[in-house]
């Protein structure tokens, strides 16, 4: 397998700017200023979730065909990992790509695919053999206009309304074998590496919304008077907001440290998983506690805090649920039960 160290400079020939990952992180943080979770998520699928494996491990031909137009914005990418029966347990996916001459014939389907209803291509995880589940998978660049692909439905969600989430079926979809990213059979490993950027992105993305939720709540609670004084003047209110702000600063430090280490080429799987776990929990806690101080107004569609409450709930589920993050952290801490003991 290729080493973890990856130079973004190599992407200039495909239209990249040759900047390191910290610039990507800065963009992700700035996208948090969009007053919703869905648009930054949809952009992140293109920049940090469906394309990193192709950029790191793909052939020159594949990068020209799929990465270059994704960088220029001419093609929309989506990531097809999750299936109806496999979300947390990625190794258990059922979609199969059978070899036929120089082609692959794909059957199965994907679930929860962000951008899936409008994407031009999918970075799709498939089983390319019947071997052991961690070495029988490949990531494939799948053009979404291939015959046999059906976007079955757009899924109705409690939040993230401005991002489409699709269920997709594959029936005898034919793609050239040369569309496999990197080495055949290494797809699971590549996807685990690709997840690092997805999880970092998710953690970076919540920083500005957290800041905004707290700031907006301070402004509202200062203005809103009950029992003859501002809501904010109750110690339980301003102490709670101070706690949340402190937690935010700790998350920010961990995220920036993870980004700095990643730029140096280090494997940040453990730290990125910790950041994603903490990000998910903190946005839930912050949106819930802040919404409370808005009273009935917090329960309306008219204020940002209610949208944050709905949209940000996904952070603890998408890209690996909190429990999956905990399992990864446990593996690094060597705390999991040993087989046979
Ligand atoms: C809006 C949205 C967008 C998405 N976008 C994409 C996308 O673009 N591409 C893609 O491939 N997927 C996408 N997903 C799928 C997402 O990654 C999965 O939903 C997620 O990984 C959880 O899988 P699952 O839904 O199948 O839940 P399950 O795997 O059924 O898990 C259910 C719950 O079990 C718990 N759990 C999991 N593991 C453990 C454990 N070890 N111990 C105890 N409890 C555990 C967790 O609480 C988890 O939420 C998206 C999902 C949503 C909702």
UniProtKB/TrEMBL annotation:
GO terms for cellular component: cytoplasm. SUPFAM superfamilies: Acyl-CoA dehydrogenase C-terminal domain-like, Acyl-CoA dehydrogenase NM domain-like. GO terms for molecular function: acyl-CoA dehydrogenase activity; flavin adenine dinucleotide binding. Its cofactor is FAD. GO terms for biological process: fatty acid beta-oxidation using acyl-CoA dehydrogenase. Residues 12-74 form the Acyl-CoA dehydrogenase/oxidase N-terminal domain. Residues 185-331 form the Acyl-CoA dehydrogenase/oxidase C-terminal domain. InterPro entries: Acyl-CoA_dehydrogenase, Acyl-CoA_DH_CS, Acyl-CoA_Oxase/DH_mid-dom, Acyl-CoA_Oxase/DH_mid-dom_sf, AcylCo_DH-like_C, AcylCo_DH/oxidase_C, AcylCoA_DH/ox_N, AcylCoA_DH/ox_N_sf. PROSITE patterns: ACYL_COA_DH_1, ACYL_COA_DH_2. Keywords: FAD, Flavoprotein, Oxidoreductase. It holds the Pfam family Acyl-CoA_dh_1. Residues 78-173 form the Acyl-CoA oxidase/dehydrogenase middle domain. Belongs to the acyl-CoA dehydrogenase family. This is Short-chain specific acyl-CoA dehydrogenase, mitochondrial. It comes from Elysia marginata.
């Amino acid at each position: 397998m290729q080493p973890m160290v990856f130079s973004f400079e190599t992407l200039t020939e495909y239209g990249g700017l040759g900047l390191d990952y910290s610039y990507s992180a800065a963009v992700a943080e700035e996208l948090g200023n969009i007053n919703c979770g869905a648009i930054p998520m949809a952009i992140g699928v293109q920049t940090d979730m469906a394309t990193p494996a192709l950029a790191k491990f793909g052939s020159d031909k594949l990068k020209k065909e799929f990465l270059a137009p994704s960088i220029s914005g001419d093609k929309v990418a989506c990531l097809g990992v999750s299936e109806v029966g496999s979300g947390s347990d990625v190794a258990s996916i059922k979609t199969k790509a059978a070899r036929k001459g120089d082609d692959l014939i794909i059957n199965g389907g994907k679930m929860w695919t962000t951008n899936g209803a409008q994407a031009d291509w999918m970075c799709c995880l498939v089983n390319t053999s019947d071997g052991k589940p961690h070495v029988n998978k490949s990531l494939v660049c799948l053009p979404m206009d291939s015959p046999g692909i059906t976007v079955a439905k757009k899924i109705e969600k409690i939040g993230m309304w401005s991002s489409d989430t699709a269920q997709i079926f594959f029936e005898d979809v034919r793609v050239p074998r040369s569309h496999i990213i990197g080495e055949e059979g290494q797809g699971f490993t590549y996807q685990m590496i690709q997840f690092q950027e997805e999880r970092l992105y998710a953690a970076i993305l919540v920083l500005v919304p957290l800041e905004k939720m707290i700031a907006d709540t301070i402004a509202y609670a200062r203005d809103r008077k009950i029992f003859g004084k501002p809501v904010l003047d109750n110690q339980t209110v301003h102490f709670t907001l101070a706690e949340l702000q402190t937690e935010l600063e700790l998350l920010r430090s961990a995220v920036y440290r993870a980004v700095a280490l990643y730029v140096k080429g280090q494997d940040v799987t453990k730290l990125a998983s910790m950041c994603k776990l903490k990000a998910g929990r903190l946005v839930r806690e912050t949106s819930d506690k802040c919404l409370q101080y808005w009273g009935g107004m917090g329960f309306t569609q008219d204020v940002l805090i209610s949208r944050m409450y709905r949209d940000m709930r996904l952070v603890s589920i998408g890209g690996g649920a909190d429990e999956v993050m905990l399992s990864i952290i446990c593996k690094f801490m060597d705390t999991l039960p040993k087989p046979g003991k």
